[in-house]
Write a structure and sequence with these properties.
Elements (H helix, E strand, L loop, with lengths): L3 E7 L4 H12 L3 E6 L2 H10 L4 E5 L4 H14 L4 E6 L16 E4 L4 H20 L1 H9 L8 H11 L5 H8 L3 H11 L13 H8 L1 H16 L7 H21 L4 H13 L2 H9 L1 H11 L3 H12 L3 H12 L3 H8 L14 H18 L20 H14 L9 H4 L3
Parallel strand pairs: 1-2, 1-3, 3-4, 4-5
Length: about 425
């Protein structure tokens, strides 16, 4: 059995030392090398085929940043992961520059193990696409789940976790609280009265959607995007989420599937945000060249980077541990992936349809659906396209999708 080779680098403490001991018997397919010196780790990486480097530099944030930068330059194929200490827990949201993924060192060993496993999946995918591997190595700014996300997830995994205990955690963040209450009162959930209680809003939205909203809000609030009108991207993401969820409900799906559609809709353009944060000047030009048509933008991305924003966003969400249905829907939201439309899971179909409808509406595009991502049909009424458009029109009339923008006109402030 061929083993994945991992390097654990720990210059302070013994967290990774203990984790390595725990994993020794549980993961026979992993060969874990523990070193306590950054130079020795770099030497190992230069001599062996290493899949992942996991580093714990304690409070030496600058040293860890430089360590990851060197690995990026010398061994770009390696997935770079870091632990952040408890006293810097609030900085988890800012991540470590040049790291693909970070996690607070107070997290359970099972969470670190799961993060490594997800990283190995991304490493395997990158091996299959050299241009994707090159792109991943060049990224210097990547969003990671905020500390609030870890707190909520830890609470849900505890024996006492509940919507009420999660409400106490979220209440510490006024901005997220306001977003949740706004979403709960948006009218989409059909509540006949105003909801002002956070616990009631969380119960209504569902914990999966709450976690997605925390991630989405963090993405829009934390990535450095000077000159970009993030409200435009937020409105678009919320519109896709709302429309995809409604399309899925029209199909008679259960609450869980509808929630998946909403989550994927909120997060579907993560790849665009990452491009904007890492290659701002060239990407601004690409967006303008596309004329507001994301299908054209996707073609330009693939020509320039070898990968489009759907696949890039899906890879990052895989690192975060989002459900596979969400990851697939993000990867598929412009179609493609060598998967026929009719064979795609319902969340993938619903998000793809929502994205196409909003694009057609924005561009006043009356082209037939065939020939785009929708090379099949969902059976909504006798005319599925007309049915989808009626859903969009109803949501706009009800104010659930409040505004529709043309990105090249509104995106740059």
């Amino acid at each position: 059995m061929k083993k994945h080779q991992l390097v654990f680098v720990e210059t302070e403490g013994r967290i990774l030392d203990g984790l390595r001991s725990n994993l020794a018997g549980a993961r026979p397919d992993w060969c874990i090398l523990l070193v306590v010196d950054a130079s020795a780790a770099l030497e190992l990486v230069s001599q062996r085929s290493i899949s992942i480097v996991l580093a714990n530099f304690g409070t030496d944030r600058r040293g860890c940043k430089e360590f990851f930068r060197t690995i990026r330059d010398d061994a770009p194929q390696v997935i770079r992961m870091g632990l952040l200490p408890d006293q810097q827990k609030e900085t988890v949201s800012n991540s470590l520059e040049y790291a693909h993924e970070c996690i607070a060192n107070h997290c359970a060993a099972e969470q670190v193990e799961a993060m490594i496993a997800r990283g190995l999946v991304v490493w395997e995918r990158s091996k299959e696409n050299p241009r994707l591997s090159a792109l991943m190595s060049d990224l210097h700014t990547l969003p990671t789940p905020p500390a609030l996300y870890f707190d909520i997830r830890d609470e849900l995994e505890s024996p006492t976790g509940s919507a009420r205990s999660v409400a106490h955690i979220i209440a510490r963040d006024p901005a997220i609280t306001a977003r949740l209450l706004k979403l709960a009162n948006s009218g989409f959930y059909g509540t006949p009265r105003t909801i002002s209680d956070l616990y009631e809003a969380i119960t209504l939205l569902g914990l999966d959607m709450v976690l997605a909203l925390v991630l989405a809000a963090h993405m829009f609030d934390q990535l450095p995007l000077p000159g970009v009108n993030l409200d435009v991207l937020w409105v678009h993401s919320f519109a896709v989420a709302t429309l995809a969820k409604e399309i899925a409900m029209e199909e008679g799906c259960n609450r869980s599937v509808a929630s998946t559609c909403g989550i994927a809709g909120l997060l579907h353009d993560l790849g665009e945000l990452i491009f904007l944060a890492n290659a701002s000047e060239s990407y601004y030009t690409m967006v303008r060249r596309s004329g507001g048509d994301e299908r054209v933008l996707l073609q330009i991305e693939i020509e320039q980077f070898g990968v489009g924003h759907p696949e890039l966003g899906a890879l990052i969400l895989s690192l975060w541990g989002l459900p596979e249905d969400v990851v697939q829907a993000v990867a598929y939201h412009h179609g493609g992936n060598n998967q026929p439309f009719e064979a795609a899971p319902l969340p993938s179909k619903a998000v793809c349809i929502a994205e196409w409808l909003l694009q057609a509406h924005n561009l006043e595009d009356e082209a037939e659906v065939t020939g785009t991502c929708l090379d099949g049909r969902l059976p909504i009424g006798s005319d599925p396209v007309a049915g989808w458009r009626q859903i969009l029109e109803r949501l706009v009339e009800q104010g659930l999708i409040q505004q529709l923008y043309t990105p090249d006109e509104e995106l740059f402030s």
